[in-house]
User: Which sequence fits this backbone?
């Protein structure tokens, strides 16, 4: 499919001229871009190249823009590249050189209130970054629907295997142990009051509605969330993300979107497996500790746990999966400062995801209680 190319519009006189670029600016149209842009700014004293309408810019196009600007500056004239946003601005920043370091601020004396204020400010900035990242992802998703081939689905199967199949043993073991521990604690108390038959309802509702989705999401955070943050952080500090933008690829569509889709699909499946093993752990305690027939446990479980309870847990797991992928990828792409920065970003990603999961679980529980679910 041929490139849609760019559009160039010039306005103003010989003293001050504005050249508006729009569309796709790539090296494929380099000869025409070089010729038309030089002609548009040749006889002017001050030129402003407006890039607000540029949808995509690759490394070759950025190099040509800077070549035109530097040629004019070398002749003692003014030329400004302005209006670039999003990935276009990032590619220009790559080819325009690193930003000048800001002067170091003088050290401040440490105080408790100042530390609390700094923490609150950093937390607010982090949430702003996550919301901006979510907005970029939604835009990338809309463009991916129109251009499915721009999404890197080649590693989708590998991501499903790493996040799902490889995590099954630990998820099955931990959820079984959690169900057994919950069953043992409940059995001790229920047996004192002759309520052995209610153990199935205690374990079933606790596991299906709360512990199954939450414990599974926590385990996925420790495995896949940390791995995603470390992978993208390493790519960021090694400038592989910048290389993708230079090639005209959107990191949101190429790297983040497949990982979000994988966890949104995998976490509910893992939650179903975790619910089954957690319930099985409770049944092991009922049979082994309370000497209760397994059929009684199963009948009471069917009596107290319905599809609505299972559905609420699966609804949580879908949101948990999306939250894990979003926060982990955002922290990974924000990594700075080499290997140490990757470690800091990975740690920050795990901590932020765990806090987010607990907050989301509390919000879901409150909403479900209001709806009487």
Assistant:
């Amino acid at each position: 499919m041929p490139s849609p190319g760019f559009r160039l519009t010039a306005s103003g006189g010989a003293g001050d001229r504005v050249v508006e670029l729009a569309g796709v600016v790539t090296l494929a149209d380099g000869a025409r871009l070089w010729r038309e842009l030089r002609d548009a700014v040749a006889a002017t004293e001050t030129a402003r190249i407006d890039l607000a309408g540029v949808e995509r810019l690759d490394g070759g196009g950025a190099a040509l823009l800077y070549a035109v600007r530097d040629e004019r500056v070398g002749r003692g004239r003014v030329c400004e590249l302005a209006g670039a946003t999003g990935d276009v601005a990032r590619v220009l920043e790559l080819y325009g050189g690193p930003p000048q370091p800001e002067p170091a601020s003088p050290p401040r004396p440490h105080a408790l209130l100042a530390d609390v204020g700094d923490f609150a400010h950093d937390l607010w900035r982090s949430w702003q970054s996550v919301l901006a990242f979510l907005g970029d992802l939604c835009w990338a998703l809309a463009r991916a629907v129109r251009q499915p081939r721009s999404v890197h689905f080649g590693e989708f199967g590998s991501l499903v295997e790493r996040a799902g199949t490889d995590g099954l043993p630990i998820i099955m073991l931990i959820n079984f142990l959690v169900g057994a521990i919950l069953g043992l604690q409940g059995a001790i108390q229920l047996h004192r009051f002759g309520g052995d038959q209610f153990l199935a309802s205690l374990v079933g509702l606790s596991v299906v509605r709360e512990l199954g989705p939450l414990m599974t999401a926590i385990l996925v955070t420790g495995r896949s969330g940390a791995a995603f943050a470390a992978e993208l952080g390493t790519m960021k500090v090694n400038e592989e993300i910048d290389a993708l933008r230079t090639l005209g690829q959107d990191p949101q569509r190429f790297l983040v979107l497949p990982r979000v889709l994988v966890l949104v699909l995998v976490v509910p499946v893992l939650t179903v497996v975790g619910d089954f093993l957690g319930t099985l752990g409770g049944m092991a305690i009922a049979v082994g500790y309370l000497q209760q027939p397994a059929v009684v446990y199963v009948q009471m479980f069917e009596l107290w746990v319905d599809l609505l309870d299972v559905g609420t847990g699966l609804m949580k797991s879908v949101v948990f999966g999306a939250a894990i992928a979003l926060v982990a990828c955002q922290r990974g792409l924000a990594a700075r400062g080499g290997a140490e920065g990757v470690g800091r970003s990975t740690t920050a990603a795990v901590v932020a995801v765990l806090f987010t999961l607990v907050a989301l679980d509390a919000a879901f529980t409150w909403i479900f209680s209001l709806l009487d679910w």
